[in-house]
Model the fold of this input.
Amino acid sequence: MDLKFIIFSVVKIALAIGVLHAIAAYAVLVERKVSAWIQDRVGPNRVAPPFVKYIPIIGPVLTRWGVFQPLADGLKFMLKEDFTPAGVHKAYFWLAPAIAIIPSLLVIAVIPFGSYMGDQKMVIADLNVGILYTFGIVSLGVYGIVLAGYAANSKFPFFGGIRSSAQMISYEIAMGMSVIPVLLIAGNLNLSTIITWQAQHGWLVIYAPLSFIIFLVSGFAETNRLPFDLPEAETELVGGYHTEYSSMKFALFFLAEYSNMAAAAGMMTTLFFGGWTLPFWGLDQPAHSIGIGVLQIIIFLAKMCALMTVFIWVRWMFPRFRYDQLMDLGWRRFVPLALVNILVTAIVLWAKS
Amino acid sequence: MIVNRKPLTFWERLYLPAIVGGFKVTFRHAWRTLFEGKKVTMEYPEQKWTVPEGYRGAPYLVRDQEGSTKCVSCQLCEFVCPPKAITITPPGPAGRLADRSNAEKMPQEFEINFLRCIYCGLCQEVCPEEAIFLLKDYSITGHSRQELIFNKEKLLSLGGVHAGVQKWKHKAEEAKEQEDFPVKV
Done:
């Protein structure tokens, strides 16, 4: 535990969390823009700080694309009244947003977002049980939501919390089992090693497409995104578990949702799309120069953003599942399918060896 | 009525056709909005819709073709106005005369409170002199309550000359026709 390790770890953590928050903020903008386009609208196109209009050409274009909207949104959240309703359980009410956002930030600790910068590995914690750690942390995310639903002491948040607990627990099983074939093929739990394996043999999405589909759909369910956003369900439950929250506390839930999404997209990139590698121009080898290192981080972020766009796109495509349909899909389709997937993969690997 | 629900085929139960269809529809709409400019919304303060004929906008006082006040302060509109938005101060026995020859008087003050006005158009319907019309203004805003109470001058300037209906001109023509009634050959 030397000083250099601590300093570089702190820098990496700060950068990773900063970038994650920026991505979460701009994911909200992308969400609004994409939804607008799909619904034949324009989307946010007004907000700009006063000096922007003096910049020729670029200024109006940036305003039109709503680039400053997340800043305004953030400011709005900070300046809003932080209202605490009368009947809430105060301690839990304060605790819930924090518990909701912490797991989503912890997950990125094991995701390798680049190869090397100098002699520093571009992953905060290169655990050899990377995926198990991820699942352990992700399952904590439900506590924040359940606690929020309970603490609000009102019907609709409570329903949201209950739904969320059932939904997230059932889909975690399918999600966990969908990854096992990946581990069988790659033969390791360490995410960096899985990426190295993919650099040599090709992306795992080709080897285990069914795993990817189950993981993707479970990812929608885990991050409470439509078509599985039953815990929020604006049309049925007012606002679901965060009905009673306002101001920055609400913003934390919001941020947690988008950070979760980013983390899920990052996980998928790592497990199925070769992480920071690209199969040509020698980009599948660990970087020897700073430039290549940065390029590989950009590759990782690009893949992640592409997957997040899929998350966002799907949201504006499908209606919400009914609760029994959700459970049916989770338990009676995905769990057996994932089991068969494991079995078939194991048999094929056994026959090959 | 009983809706006959067909059991889904295996292909449909895979959700795949629905997913592909969803991607197609959403992509088509996003493409049209982005690249073909087929958005359905209007960017309001910069773009404005064309107000259709017969639209009931804000009621304003109008002038006749000679530019004189048409209102004769009969107070029918004040009486009929459902939200009591109109307040007329009549000139009184010693007040100013009307600024046109065929009217006895004109209002000393005429106020419409646009905080109260409901744009019903009863004032226009009831007016015997055709002096008040619902024009096409629909965005009446102000910074204070006082600002939204329009007085006579403001109403007249906003209403302008209404060339469409010229009651007294027509009356005069009618009277002339009456005089000429037994058609002289």
Residues 47 and 181 of chain A are 47 Å apart (CA to CA). Chain A is about 70% helix and 0% strand.
